[in-house]
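Methods — Computational structure assignment.
A single polypeptide chain was analysed. Its primary sequence is given first, followed by the predicted tertiary structure written as structure tokens.
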Amino acid sequence: MAAKLNQIFHLKERGSNVRTEVLAGLTTFLTCVYIVAVNPGILAAAGMDTKAVFWATALSAAIACIWIGLWANLPFALAPAMGLNAYFAFYVCNTLGLPWQNALACVAISGILFMFLSIFKVQQRIVDAMPECIKHSVGAGIGFFIAFTGLMQAGIIKESPDTLLTLGDLANPGALLALFGIFLTAVLVIKRVRGAMLIGIMVVTVLGIIVKNPETGMAYTIIPKSIFSFENPVSAMAPTFGKLTIKGMFSGSPEMVLGVVFAIISFLFVDLFDSIGVLLGVSSKAGLVDEKGNIPFAGKALFVSAGGAAVGAVLGTNTVTIYGAESATGISEGGRTGLTACVTGFFFILTLFFSPLFLMIPSVATAPALVMVGIFMIEPLQRLPLDDVAIALPVFLTVAFMPFTYNIAYGILFGLIGYTIGQIAAGKTKEITKTVWVLTAIFVVYLILDIIL
């Protein structure tokens, strides 16, 4: 068996072995398995069946991980994207008003477009032309968006008629549980404990068994009759599998149609930049960058990320993408080949046998994971020269507009417009690429149409 695995994954060539790869895969899984608990709750806000989303989340992650492991031989984990799930549920469905079936179609279309861009290597040219400050601030903005969602979900912050937002009722047991979970998870992360976010979720879930929700009079965590369950996949996934449709997507008002187009672009843009950012940031840690600074398997990895988004939409979940921080944990444990990713995918399959265990996890237990992911994603801001207002302007607009407008797309839009204005004011128009000029023009036209319509 070891000899066969070595032949498939070239373990010796990359200085690894089966034991190391298995442990790395398990470590990666423990750091990203929180998604199977978090995703169903978020997409439920769009009216989707939580059990079906659970299945779609676990299965799409398993397929994508095994795909990238066997085909690209890379130690990366893929799963439905945090941030884009909130964008899917709270903006595309609840604000824009699209049925979730149409929102899934937007995800599928963006994945197919990404696949074509990957085939023709267009995505690399687009990314190369984009300003570094926008590349780094998009992830940070999404991080704030995710953390904001978690804090609202836990009741730690809430709406206010006077100040728009205010501190939530900290006498509420749910808010206190979530706060405890945030600090516990942070301490575990600082101590470099493997599976810190999963442990945080588990501890708060257990405490939720004895703490009652004052609104319902029931415990926050409802213990299921059985922790083991493997239902018929067809019946379990029936509520979401293959339900995506383009019917009615482009038959509404001009404003609605523009919103749909921009939603597709947003799914594509964020997936594209997240995937390439992970490849650039994590591949060097794994020793997968050649002497010229290139990543030989980047094309395959991006294609899997794109294909994973399309497959996930068919199964019934939001955009599947490469996980950066989570993949880095497995790489730090010695993962160097696709066997790490395959092991991660195998464990995602195992979660399907314990669906009641994951579905009983309350939102107050998953909120700390959202906040911690948000914290992880602000790291790129330290690389930017924020003492230069021409750079600070687009960075601020990108990061601020995402949580403040509850819309990732608006952060990208205003950030790029701010960058163009800043460079013009600084007399650096020659540094603005043709691609940025075109995108800025498109975004300005979009805003004008939005105002007129």
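Note: The first strand starts at residue 77 and ends at 80.
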